[in-house]
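During the reporting period the student researcher (J.K.) took over the structure-prediction task from the postdoctoral fellow and processed the backlog of single-chain submissions. One of the processed entries is reproduced below for the supervisory committee.
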Amino acid sequence: MFLKGIKDKFKRKAGLKYLNQSKKNKVACSRVNKGVRKIGCIVDLDRVKDAAMFNQFITEFSLQPNGLKIIGYKKEQDKNSPYATPVFSENDLGWGGKIVNSYALEFLSKEYDILISYYTDDNLVLQLMTLQSKARIKVGFGEIDKNLNDLILNTPITDFNIFKNELRKYLSVLGEIK
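J.K. obtained the following structure tokens:
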């Protein structure tokens, strides 16, 4: 137990170092054309109880059913409990800021037109997921590090409809949607 605590502390320290060094270098994305065809969502399931509400983006932006990918974060993940959304947790932080969850690695392997970081807590694992994701435009909240996202919406995390409407408005201004 004692050694596990020391190991976790060193993992966090290495993860923080990686995060701070990598904020300057944006992850490359080959998606250069304007328009929204693929959206990725990183959701804090401890704060948002129903990740199914993100399926509204399919109709809102006229996406194909496979154009939306959602992954959730739980602080304490129960391996025996089934989740409707693929989940990762604090335990999935590996050495050097690497994520060692198969769902998270699959999410990180895809490229998105828009990445939505739907969390407000200053959490290392969530920030590493945002940093390592390949997206043309990264959208998040003002409470987290402003260097992680390209577009910051200062809306309450509890009101998804306001967030969705503001996102639509700003994407329209940027010429991403009509």
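The committee noted the following: The chain has a mean pLDDT of 86.
J.K. will present the remaining backlog at the next meeting.
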